[in-house]
Amino acid sequence: MIGIFDSGYGGLTILNHIRQHLPQYDYLYLGDNARAPYGTRSFDVIYEYTLQAVNYLHQQGCNLIILACNTASAKALRTIQQRDINPDELRVLGVIRPTVEVVPQRTRTKHIGVLATPGTVASESYVIELLKQDPTLTITQQACPMWVPLIESGEHLGDGANYFVEKYLTELLTRDPLIDTIILGCTHYPLLQPKIEAFLEKYEHTKLLIQNSKFKIISQGEIVARSLADYLHRHPDIAERALKNRHALEDNSKFIIHNSKFLTTESATKFSESASLFLSEPITARHIEL
Ligand code: DGL
Question: What ranges in the chain are assigned the alpha helix state H?
Answer without folding.
Answer: 12-21, 43-59, 70-75, 77-79, 96-101, 118-123, 125-133, 147-152, 160-175, 193-206, 220-234, 236-244, 268-279
